[in-house]
Structures are given as structure tokens and as C-alpha cells.
Write a structure and sequence with these properties.
The protein has 226 residues and is α+β, with helices and mostly antiparallel strands. The chain is globular and about 55 Å long. Belongs to the nitroreductase family.
């Protein structure tokens, strides 16, 4: 694994071994992550780290509700998330990479559905970290940025300790299930889910590295004299 794969977390791990992750290691990772930038040091984030039977109940509840057609109920929303144009192309592109790696044919609807349900099962990882923020800050411009920063820092810290992680929204799309079994109080808003565990190096999708824009495509340099 290359240096930038670890530090920048270029790979999202979607297949984990069942080996438990020690609580002490998770505490170490969280301590590192919480040095992430925070606007005016507000530190709006909180973490609910779930494993064992409570996590199994969340997996089961998420799966049952989705198969039953219960509408999604994510708590943090800023507007429509229907991607169009190049953004939709990138979304489809990484899906094609993953399906190809897993050998899932376009017409294989059963396997495609199972792949989607993996997200609702927290990718079968041994640990799930639910990132929340204090409801009193709801509507703040900076709070979502801070939670994104700490989530990225958490993933990078996990990589630096040999763990794998994937930030996802599917695991919190049935928020009543998550709130009940994680014991999340009403003064918290559920923001994101991070599946965490030891990478299964035999899992084909773990080798996928998503295509990214080049620096030239993404950047405009001003005042550099060229």
C-alpha cells in the first residue's frame, strides 16, 4: 500500500474481516481525529461507537425496513441529492468499477440489491461509528464542515493504524432504528455513519480506487505570474 493511500484514504473499504477492534484502539483513533479543524473551536461532533448485538439489531432493522419499502428518514438534509451531468457520471462511474470488481452483471438484480443492502448493514463491519452534532447548532453553516473534517480525520487515523473505513449514508437512512439501538438522545442530530474494521484483503471491491479529477481540472491558480 502506498503512502498516499493511507494518509489520504483513497480506498474505501467495503469488505471487512469479523475480527473485533479493541476499544482502546478506537479511543486512540478518535483522539487523533478530534484534532481536526473546527470553526471557532465549537467542536460540534459526538460519536456513538457500536459493535456486537446492538449493531446486529441496527443491521436487521435497517434491512427489514428497506425491504418493506419504509421511506428513508435521514436527519441531516440540505436539499435534493439527485446528481446530474458530470456529477452523475462520476457516481455511475464508481458504481461500474465496483460492480465489475465484484463480478455483478447489470441484469443480476438480486446481486445488485444485495450490494445495496450491504450499505444498510454497515458493510458487515465489526464496528460502526455514528457521527452526530448538537441540535442546538442545527442550521449552522460551519457545523457540517466541521463534521466532515472530523470524519475524514477519523478515516485517516484509522488507516494509519492498519484499519479500514468507509464513510456512508445508507447506514443512517433509517434513523429511528439507529437512534433506538445506539441510544442517541433527542438533543443530537445524526449526520453520518462510518463502517470500521480490519480490511479483508481478499474482498475484490477493496482493490478499487475511484477515479479523481486532476489538479489541473480542479484548480485555478491566481497571481503566480504564469
Amino acid at each position: 500500500m502506498q503512502f498516499d493511500d493511507v494518509i489520504l484514504g483513497r480506498r474505501s473499504i467495503r469488505g471487512f474481516t469479523p475480527e473485533p477492534v479493541p476499544r482502546e484502539l478506537i479511543e486512540e483513533i478518535l483522539a487523533l481525529a478530534m484534532r481536526a479543524p473546527s470553526s471557532m473551536n465549537t467542536q460540534p461532533w459526538n460519536f456513538y461507537v457500536i459493535t456486537g448485538e446492538p449493531l446486529d439489531r441496527i443491521r436487521a432493522g435497517n434491512t427489514e425496513r428497506n425491504l418493506a419499502g419504509v421511506p428513508h428518514s435521514r436527519e441531516f438534509r440540505t436539499g435534493a441529492e439527485k446528481f446530474t451531468g458530470v456529477h452523475r457520471d462520476r457516481q455511475v462511474g464508481v458504481a461500474k468499477q465496483l460492480f465489475t470488481a465484484m463480478g455483478i452483471a447489470r441484469e443480476d438484480m438480486e446481486m445488485r440489491q444485495d450490494w445495496v443492502l450491504r450499505g444498510f448493514r454497515q458493510f458487515d463491519a465489526p464496528v460502526c461509528v455514528i457521527v452526530t452534532y448538537d441540535r442546538i447548532l442545527d442550521g449552522s453553516d460551519d457545523t457540517p464542515f466541521d463534521c466532515g473534517a472530523v470524519s475524514t480525520a477519523l478515516v485517516n487515523a484509522a488507516w494509519s493504524r492498519g484499519l479500514g473505513a468507509v464513510i456512508n449514508s445508507q447506514g443512517i437512512m433509517q434513523s429511528p432504528v439507529v437512534r433506538e439501538h445506539a441510544g442517541i438522545p433527542d438533543d443530537q442530530v445524526i449526520m453520518k455513519s462510518i463502517a470500521l474494521g480490519w480490511p479483508d484483503e481478499t474482498f475484490p471491491a477493496n482493490a478499487v480506487i475511484s477515479e479523481r479529477k486532476t489538479v489541473e481540472e480542479a484548480t485555478t491558480f491566481v497571481g503566480f505570474g504564469d
